[in-house]
Every structure is written in C-alpha cells, then in structure tokens.
Amino acid sequence: xxxxxxxxxLLAPYAMHAxxxxxxxxxxxxxxYRSPYQRDRDRITHSSAFRRLSHKTQVFTRELxxxxxxxxxxxxxxxxxVTSVARTIARALRINEDLVETLALAHDVGHPPFGHAGxxxxxxxxxxxxxFNHNAQAVRLFTLLERRYPDRPGLNLTAEVLDGQRRRATxxxxxxxxxxxxPIDAETPLLEVQVVDAADSIAYDSHDADDALELGLLTLGExxxxxxxxxxxxxxxxxxxxxxxxxxxxxxxxxLIDRQVNDLFTMVTQAIEGRGIDSVETLRAAGVIARHSDxxxxxxxxxxxxxxxxxxxxxxxxxxxxxxxxxLEYCFAHSMKAPETLPAPFxxxxxxxxxxxxxxxxxxxxxxxxxxEAWRPA
Length: 378
Fold this sequence. Notes:
Layout: H1 3-10, H2 36-45, H3 48-52, H4 75-93, H5 97-106, H6 115-125, H7 134-145, H8 159-169, H9 191-214, H10 220-223, H11 227-239, H12 245-274, H13 280-285, H14 294-312, H15 315-337, H16 344-352, H17 355-365, H18 368-375
Helix pairs in contact: 2-5, 4-5, 4-9, 4-12, 5-8, 5-9, 6-15, 7-8, 9-12, 9-14, 11-12, 15-17, 15-18, 16-17
Family: Belongs to the dGTPase family. Type 2 subfamily.
Protein name: Deoxyguanosinetriphosphate triphosphohydrolase-like protein
GO molecular function: dGTPase activity
C-alpha cells in the first residue's frame, strides 16, 4: 500500500494529505513507499543543524547543572519531547502524523547557542541587518545553509513544512502573556501546525518546572502554590501512598502533560464537531482551534508567570546568561574583525549578503561548548 492509499484510509478529511502537497521548490520523483513528509523528517534528523541541538541550551546551561548530573533538558531533548506530545495529539485527532512529526523536529533547529538568551544577543548584534529570530533562522538553514545536494543549497523541503516554520517566524517571541497559538494572517494555519505550537507550550510548561526542581531552583512547596501543579500533585498523592519527593515530582510532571493534552484534545474535538469542519478548507475558515479551555489557559498562565519570576529570572540563571552574552559577543566580534577565519560557506554569504549576516549565521551554528571554548581558550 502506498502512502496515498494509507493516508486516505487513516486520516480525517480535515488533515493535510501528502497527495495534496504543494510540492517542493525543485520537483523530485515520488518515493515508492515514503511520503514527502516522511522524507522531510529524515532530511531534518540527518542534518548537522539537528545534531547540534544536543549541545545547545534549552533553559539551563550545562554549567548551571554542574555537580548535579545531566538530568536537565537540552534543546534536542526538548525537541524530542515536543515531538512525542505532538504525535500523540495528531494520532488522536487523525491528522497527518508524519507532517506533525516533521514540524515538531524542525521547530527549534534555528536556535543559536544558549537558547533564548543567545537569541536576544544575536538579535541585538544583527539589528542593522534585520535582527535574528530562531524560527526564521530555521527556514534559512533549510533553504540555504544546510547542504544536501552537490549542485544547490538547502534541503528542498515541502512547501507545507517551510510554510509552517515561516508562520512561526512571524509570531511574537515567546512570552508569559501569550500561551495559546495565535492566528497570524488571514489564512489559518493547518491543524498540524497548530498542534505543534500547542505541544511546544505543553512540553516547556511541564519540563521547565521539572528541571528547576532537579537543579534546586524551586521546591515542591513553592510549586504547590500554583493551581495546575497542586491539582496534578494532589491527584498523584491520592493515587499513590508514601511517595518520595523524587517520585512525586516525576508523577506530577506526567500528570501535568496528560491534563493539558486531554484538555486540548477535548477543545479541538468540540470545535471540529461544533463548526462542521470536514475539510482543510473549512478548517482554515474556522480560525485557530488548537486552544485550551479558558480554565486551563488561566492555569497555564499562572504557572508560566511563576516560572518567569522564580526560574527564568533566578540569579543563577541570569549569571550564566551574562557569561553566555559575553562569550557570544566575543565570537561575533572575532568573526567581524577576522572574516578570513569564517568557513568557506559563510565567507560566500559575506560576499553575497553582508559580513554581519555571515558572522551571525556562523555563530548561530556553534554549540554552547564551542562558544565557551573560543571565549575561554585552554
């Protein structure tokens, strides 16, 4: 059975069927059993940019976790967790799981070293040439910087994957005020795109709290003041007896994710049934439907606001961000002062575009460790 027949049997009518894809910038022959979105997934996971995510910060740097092991998330493990959540939702909704998986794996590929802190530094350094946005940088990687073919740049991904990533690039930066996926133009994103945005929010709300507990930046008592955490923890206390703090934390994180996923699934299902959504066209006309209930959205806002105050602005986190800022600024300045040290692909960008953009592209590809080693040579 080829992918067209398989999708016709398994997917809902409002799902994005690969047979209806707008295709690639450079046409390619169909694969006998892999759909275009499966091929995109493999191109992303085999890319050098994806591999580098294993050594890039999610929220907490390796130095912050020194002496406590490597429990906390990297940008790669966060990406895999988002993918897991997104695939669960996609399968339950009968939308295109291959497309959802690809979009989820792609969503953070453009992140520079040191996560959002690094992004803020590069955005300031590149203000004169358009700034820096990790979502836009992912599109740049997929269409220009990654090399899959000997005769042209980029990965030649499908229009739907590139469009989904471009839509993320036009949204406001993540903030505590914006928890829900937002419509960004007159045409509503595919449900597959909406689900990945929602899965990202679910994952970081849950796992940032988990990492902060592991690193000693928060206590269970502090989190028990937050409604979403407390209700999830109380349910685990009722289900199990005499839980250790470590077991309670793990069980509560699982419950947090489950509660958010169930709420989202319920709201999306109600919207599909209530609005008579039976095609991609009626889905796009309906506006964004991958939203949480008002009650859940309020609880998520309370949790994120707390994490912003207690974790993201924690003195230990801010101290390491200051070090990251200094290291990134050094690497960027070095590339500007000595452009002959740029690897050949980035030297070409300097000649064709601008030296600041080439320096930004190069520094963004580096891992946390590479930046720190350049800044603090042995």
